[in-house]
Amino acid sequence: MNANPVAIVVFLILFLLVACLGFVATRWRKADLHSVHEWGLGGRSFGTIITWFLLGGDLYTAYTFVAVPAAMFATGAIGFFAVPYTILIYPILFLCFPRLWSVAKRHGYVTAADYVKGRFGSRTLALAIALTGIIAIVPYVALQLVGMQVVFAGLGIPSTFAGIPNLPVILAFAVLAAYTYSSGLRGTALTAVVKDLLIYITVLTAIIVIPSALGGYGKVFDSIDPKKLLLAGGSDTSLGATFSYATLALGSALALFLYPHSLTGILSSSSSKAIRKNAILLPAYSLALALLALLGYMALAAGIKAMPEYAAGFAGFGDNFSIPALFLHMFPGWFVGLAFAAIAVGALVPASIMAIASGNLFTRNIYKQFINPDCTDRQEGRAAKLASLSMQIGAVLFVLFFPTSAAIQLQLLGGVWICQTVPAVLVSLYTRWFHPTGVLAGWAAGIISGTAMAWQLSLKGSVYPLHLGDLTIPSYAAVLALVLNFVVAILVTLVMNAVSPNKTDETVPADYHS
Amino acid sequence: MDVDKPQESQGRKFHPVYLLLAVPFVALLWVPFYNRIEPSLFGIPFFYWFQMAWTLLGALCILPVYLHEERTRQKDDGK
Known about the structure:
The complex is a heterodimer. The longest helix of chain A is centred in the middle third of the chain and has 48 residues, at 167-214. By secondary structure, chain A is mostly helical. Chain A has a single domain, classed as Sodium/glucose cotransporter (Up-down Bundle). In chain A, strands 1-2 form a two-stranded antiparallel sheet. Chain A has a two-stranded antiparallel sheet with strand order 3-4. Chain A has helices spanning 5-24, 36-41, 48-59, 62-75, 82-107, 112-120, 123-155, 167-214, 217-222, 226-229, 240-256, 260-267, 272-281, 283-302, 311-317, 322-330, 333-371, 377-401, 404-419, 422-426, 436-456, 477-499, and strands at residues 160-161, 164-165, 463-468, 471-476. Chain A is globular, with a radius of gyration of 23 Å. Chain B is mostly helical. Chain B has three helices and no strands. Chain B has helices at 23-29, 31-34, 46-78. Chain B is elongated. Chain B starts with 22 loop residues before the first helix and ends with a helix. The interface between A and B is large, with 51 and 42 residues.
């Protein structure tokens, strides 16, 4: 593919501007960045607006913006499940997470595992929750790199420079690692503001310009294969794709805010009111995502896959190349540069929060618990920074040495795993009935069964066809595993509460309302 | 075990307005209801515009619950 000089220049200017902001943030609301509370949680100081940008920048990642339209492009209606999914997260956010924020603030919890340890008094359960978070997030960070690679290829930047493969991506991530290390969550919050503005400009322009160039939304939908346009309904022998669609939306919605990077974003806000307000304001991003998803159909309508100039991109990145190709086809170079910068910065923001969140988890729930219990605040902060740095290096190595498909498959597994922390983190906000041993047994059952189902599907998809007699129930594996998780947790709790009830709980009901 | 006492003892009784939070789940998880082309809007099939409309409607379902919580919180603080 030919390099596009105007696009590259605009792209580089915007990208460097955002990177500089990340460094400037060390001076923003100046504080002692050596402690985990300040570095890894922004001192719990972000109001409604910064939280809106931070969570928006955090949840709607570069990979989302590339992969959701690509899923529509490749598979049609089923790819649209991201829309109900990202609507259903908000009643959950509104109901459960102000409680978690309150108890975390009262007791100084930085991670979900901190809370679980306080609530259940079990270091083992807390370790299980921390490890689930750390392992689930590595492929998620790696996918952000994949999103960047797609954009670099779209710009025509060669992936090998001076004989070093993937040099552009390595450089971009070095910038990210440097500002994350020096300014922590503050840097991420400032860059998130710019990222979101770029994304909104791109989306609004795209949804006005592209459909009118293609003759209107009606023309776009008319050109789509009718079989792709709707889901296959149920029959006497199967509940059909409509059921898979519902379970995908529900399971993903339950899991989303349990990912360490989402929790870090939530816990960094300055009040529970800021969280409740954001449950009403954040759906604006879901609308943007829905409109972006439809770009997948516009790419089909424009027939970009048949265009020889994009053949190399499709060969390298598969359908993930559809949106970059659509932009290259539709827009002048300067706007392509802006749109691609939006996607690339859209990779930096979540990747940075993910690295910070996993740094927090490692430090609070492994280093402090098992390695150096008497560490000072300064040592704790240092450990978190180094852990987040190694996480970023790990993600780069992952992308360099494994095929893209490995990151996608592991991310899919990560979603199944994270969903298994629902009883420990979400349900426990409302009831103390569950016994830690029961929750741990349920977690293990969920992780093992979920992994087994995904394995049987050869890690190619996440919809498992459960057979009950003659009826096939195609469900998101995370939901099936969660059902088993609950059954095991309830049974073991019944036994354990009779044998040796758990009386440790450092929280009291009043901690959950502030 | 006294730790098992329900947290409603905080004076936070269940109020029917909370049922609004369940509405988006019913609307969006009952997929066969909206898995159809007609009625289309500006050429956009029902399946798509219905779900897009819920990005706004979902937020509107949360708003009354938010206002209710703010009122009860102010009352609590006034006590």
